Amino acid sequence: MIAFNIFKWIGDLFTNILFLPFNYLRTDLAVQSGGWWTSNIVNWIFLVVLLVLLWYWMKESRKFLKEGTED
Fold first, then answer.
1. Taking the model in full, what pTM does it have?
2. DSSP secondary structure string, 5-44?
3. Using CA atoms, how far apart are residues 57 and 59, in angstroms rounded to an integer?
4. Residues 6+ apart with CB under 8 A from 22
């Protein structure tokens, strides 16, 4: 019974507290601003961060490849 309560608390934590900003973006902001773009702004931010990190990684990889120290 204790384990069940722990998992129930974890589920409540995620659904009622941690996902509130995403629920706001999904429902209220999409209706107010009227757009797919505004409701998916978090995804676009993650995509930009991913592309910047990929660019940095490729730049460093090219540097090590030129030096011959990739191992």
1. 0.53
2. HHHHHHHHHIIIIITHHHHHIIIIIHHHHT-HHHHTHHHH
3. 5
4. 42
Place of tokens 């990684």: 57
Tell me how crowded residue 26 is: count the other CB atoms within 10 A of its CB.
14
- Going by the DSSP 8-state scheme, the letter that residue 68 receives in this structure is T
> Which residue has 């961060």 as its token pair?
49
Q: What is the pLDDT of residues 41-65, one digit of tens each?
A: 878 899 999 999 999 999 999 999 8
Token digits of residue 9: 């608390």
Which two tokens mark 15? 């659904």
Which residue, 24, 21, 40, is CA-closest to 32? 24
Q: Which amino acid is at 51?
A: L
Q: How far apart are CA 34 and CA 29, in angstroms?
A: 7
